[in-house]
């Protein structure tokens, strides 16, 4: 169990076994209670309810082993259902999906259900969404009669996500550039329209001056004073 590895790493593993002959009972009980206080908070409420009567670290670990690691049929069925119903949603990072997949494979291994590598790879490929079909089909067909390798499939999955993300970023950048060009064109056309309108307005509204009498408001041919 991972908890056992953690306790060994912290040199707190002694309560997993019997009390050493050279250790006082009071010291042993204190150490056992200390380790028990480390393990219990790591358990879910439902699990704690099933092992609440255990008062020693060794007893607790044995009870947990009985719940999750012995090859009981109900645990096998539960883990297998979770594995076969595992589906990657559209917004889930592939790294998280691979972690969930491998976690279920490891849980099945603890109840003595082991899959060959090729079967694991096929289950993993089947759990990917339809949008991953352009990657899934070539990977499935690339090996011919040879068996797939799980490591290769996982690397292809990670590379495919990088490719997808690059495509999204490039598409977003292209849309931004198009938007900028459109805005620039709109401003330029608007400026031209205003300039033309202003020119026309000035031309149409300019003050006329008669060459004959020198007064404004009419032209020479309209001037009564000049007799034309």
Automatic annotation (TrEMBL):
CCHC-type domain location: 210-224
Any coiled-coil regions, as ranges: none
Gene Ontology molecular function: nucleic acid binding; zinc ion binding
Signal sequence bounds: none
Protein name: CCHC-type domain-containing protein
Regions crossing the membrane: none
Superkingdom of origin: Eukaryota
